[in-house]
Amino acid sequence: MTTAPLEQILDACHAGVIVVDGDGAIRTWNAWMAHATGLPATTVRGRRLVDVFGSGISTRLLDAVDDALRGGLSAV
User: Which residue pairs, CB below 8 angstroms and at least 24 apart, start in 2-9?
Assistant: First the structure.
């Protein structure tokens, strides 16, 4: 399977990276996230963070993502 250049760059990061679209759906996440969660990007693609992590997800993270989507800024 060929990996897109952006995914190769994300996989080279030594931290978890999640890319979501304007609707909050996961477009991809990097190899670090796949290793940490045991879920490959193909499994989570198209799902929302809360659907993947359930009640275990931080409301601070969800708020940061929502703020970033509304304001067009990256969230940390």
Answer: 7/41
Positive/negative CA dihedral, 12, 14, 16, 20: negative
Cα separation, 69 vs 9, whole angstroms: 22
Residue 26 CA to residue 69 CA, distance in Å, equals 13
CA distance 51 to 33: 15
| Mean pLDDT confidence for 45-74 | 87
Q: What is the pLDDT of residues 7-24, one digit of tens each?
A: 899 999 999 999 998 888
Q: Give the separation between CA 25 and CA 35, rounded to whole angstroms.
A: 20
Question: At 35, which amino acid appears?
Answer: H
- Chain centre distance of CA 19: 4
pTM beyond 0.85: the answer is: no
Looking at the DSSP bridge assignments, the partners of residue 18 are 29
> In this structure, what DSSP letter does residue 53 have?
H
